Structure formats: structure tokens, C-alpha cells
Amino acid sequence: MLVKVLGAAAGGAFPQWNCACQQCQRLRSGTFAGKPLTQAQLAISEDGTSWTLLNASPDLRIQIEATPQLWPTGQSLHSPIQSVVITAAEADTVAGLLSLREFQPLDIYATRSVLRILREDNSLFALLDRVPRQAVWKEIQPDVAFSIGELKFKPFSLPGGFPGFVRPQRRSELEASEAVLGLLIESRSGGRMAYLPGVARVEESWREWLDECDVLLFDGTFWTEDELCRVRGGGNQASEMGHLPLSGPCGSLAALLDIQCERKIFFHINNTNPILDESSQAYAEVRAAGWEVARDGMEIAV
Ligand SMILES: [Zn+2]
């Protein structure tokens, strides 16, 4: 299985259009030891010709143009992108679907609750249903495995709620366990990747299967719990946003210290997180603990 990181940043990207934090400012002025990042987006493929997107970021159109494997070939309308797996109904995970609206056949996998938010509450997504068999919406459930081609997916429920824009009445009709999914993906040859871009806490029960993964892509949003408040003088705590920070005695670096996974990669990184700065102490700590920091354009063989 080939995994392409099309975008490694959390929502807002790096730099974020309206952020004047010192990291965004230094990146703009060319004095930052790191690169710009687009918003979190992966593409995976077993054979290198047919691709599945994991979520659909607001930056998807430019991410596709930056990735020759995803360019159309042969016919006038064609795409190597065959399917999209959606793991939450956030703007950052679904907005890119609207960039895929040019009559391209596409299988879109999501839980029943997420499908109801997209298809019953947001009429814009009907743009994907203008001709027969344009989008084929496929319902998935936590803990029920499914396959796309030769790739096997095991979705599981992660702690976290539905987005703030979902109306209270609708929210009361939805299954909380279907709000946010993590994915375990297995290739034909048995290679395994765990995809956990938004994690509020590390469950003890995960340890066994995390140890058996070849690659872990894990929530790298914040370095500290109070990062947004400290850097921007206001905002939510990391835990209030459903993200376990990396540092500290209860952070993800400590919680995942002894997992056996071959490659551990922080992904979905907020522009305020000091691990983006390759000259920082935080970056040195992460690397010393055996972790990598995801970058746009990174290719991972699983
Ligand atoms: Zn910033």
C-alpha cells in the first residue's frame, strides 16, 4: 500500500490566512526552519493506479494538482480517485467533496449519522448527485470491517462529538458513536496502518493492535493543552477541542512511549505547534522519541 500525505496541517493550514502568531509570521518572512503545509489530507492506493482519499480537505483541489499520481489520463473526464472515506462531518474533513463535483463517479463512505448531516441538512452536497451514479454514498459502521478493492478497513469509534453547526434537534437523532472514526487499514500483503488524526485520549485497549501496526499516523495538533490561549491570547484548551496534546506527563508522547509500531508519525499539526519548527526543542524531543513529523508530499510504503 502506498500512502501519500497530500496535506499535514490541522484546520487553517500553515500559515493560516488570518493568523499572526510568530510561527506563521516567521514562515511568511522566510525565517522559519520548516515548510508551509496544507490541511490534513491522505490518499492511499494498493496498486498505484486506483486511489482512495481519506477525508476531503478544503485544500483538495490544489493538493490533487500537486500530486501527478492523481491527475486524469486518457479520456477527457477521468480521475484515478475512485473513492473517499469520510471519518467525521467537520468542514475540514468534508469541504473538499465540493471540489470533486464535476460529474466524476465516486464512492463515498461514511457513517449513517455523517451521511444524514451531509445529505439531509446541507443541500450543497446535492451537487454530487446531479447525474445517476455520480456519487454512490455507502454507509459504514464502527467495528464493521469493509473493503475497497484489495484494501481492508476496520473503522472504530473515537471519542468526540458532531460539529458545532449540527442543529440540536438533528444531534438528538444521531448516534454519538458515529461522530468520529479512526481507521485501521490493511494492505494485500498484510501491512497495517492506523489513522487517528483526532484523539482526545489514548485507550489502554488500543495498545495491542497499535503494537501490530507498521505505520501510525497520530493526532499532532497541539504541543500543550493551553497552546491556543497562550499563543493567541484566547481560544479553547486542546482537550476542549478533542485533541490530546503531545507534551507533558499525560500527553501522547508519554502515553505512546513504548508502542512497538515501526513508524510513528504526527499528522494534523496546528500552525501554533512548535514541532513544525525544525530548530525547536519540541522538534528535537519528538525526533528523539522516535517520531516523525508529517510533511506535504511525504510518501509512505506500508
Ligand atoms: Zn499561526
Strand order of the largest sheet: 6-5-4-3-2-1-14
Q: Quick one: overall form?
A: globular
The N- to C-terminal Cα distance equals 5 Å
- Small-molecule binders: zinc ion
Counting DSSP E segments of at least 2 residues, the number of strands comes to 14
Number of helix segments?
A: 9
Beta-strand percent range: 15-25%
Model regions low in confidence, pLDDT < 50 over at least 5 residues: none
- Quickly give the structural class: alpha/beta
Largest beta sheet, briefly? 7 strands, mixed
Helix percent band = 10-25%
Q: Strand-and-helix sequence, N→C? A: EHEEHEHEHEEEHEEHEHHEHEE
What radius of gyration results from the CA coordinates?
Answer: 19 Å
Mean pLDDT: 96
Explain this structure.
- By secondary structure, the chain is α/β, with parallel strands linked by helices.
- Helices cover 19% and strands 23% of the residues.
- The strands form two sheets. The protein has a seven-stranded mixed beta sheet. It has a seven-stranded mixed beta sheet with strand order 7-8-9-10-11-12-13.
- β4, α3 and β5 (106-111) form a beta-alpha-beta unit.
- The longest helix has 10 residues, at 112-121.
- The termini are close together.
- 45% of the residues are buried.
- The protein binds zinc ion.
